[in-house]
Each structure stands twice: as C-alpha cells, then as structure tokens.
Amino acid sequence: MPRVTTQVRSAGRRVAATGECIEVAAALGDLDAVDRLLEGVASLTGAVQTPNELLVGVHPSLAALRRLGAGGSARRFLEALEPVAEKALPGSLQVRASLAEGYLLLKDEARASALIESTIDAALSGS
Fold first, then answer.
1. pTM of full prediction above 0.85
2. What is the per-residue pLDDT across 73-96, written as a single tens digit (0 to 9) for each?
3. Rounded to an integer, what distance in angstroms lies between the CA atom of residue 86 and that of residue 26?
C-alpha cells in the first residue's frame, strides 16, 4: 500500500488524507489496511490543532467500521481520540458524539452511553 500521507506536512491534512485512504481500503475490504490507517489517525491526535481537524478522519473511519465490523484497532482508535474529545475546544462535542457512535458499533453500550451523557451535559452547561 502506498504511503501517501507521509508527504503531507500539516497534521490536519494528514488526517484528512488518511481518512480518504480508510474509505478506499474499506471499499476494497482490506481489513489490514484499515487497521493500519486507523492507527495512523490515532497517532496524529496530539499533532492536530483542533478537534474539528480530527473529524475529517473520524467520520470515514466510522463508515469503515460500519462496513467491515470492528476489531482491536478500532477500540484503540477510539480510545486514542478520547483525550481530544474531553478538551474544551471548538469541535470537541462533535468528536465526543462520534466516539459514542463508534462505541455503539463495538457493542460497548455502557461507554457509548457515558459519552452521550457527558456530551449532553457539556452542551447544556455551555462548556
């Protein structure tokens, strides 16, 4: 698999490019590539400037999980994004809601429910 994302300097653009690669790998049914790409997005969480930049990689990733099912890499992917979702930055509530959706796909209803409740609480409190 070509390493397209290594040529892109901006972490936000790398996440977007990796998200597009995830969509292609999922369409091809390449579980190994999807796993590696999920780990690639997760590894960029500390480098992106805002949670909104992560959403461009999270949404294709969730679509891939829907198509292919979920595994260990999917759980690690979601867990790596949780610290970003907890920050009080623009877009963090959307990341939190997306993570809840991901945990539902993993059949982890307790974790999804906790994220949904914290998202609602944060939205209603204005934080």
1. no
2. 778 778 888 887 777 777 788 888
3. 28
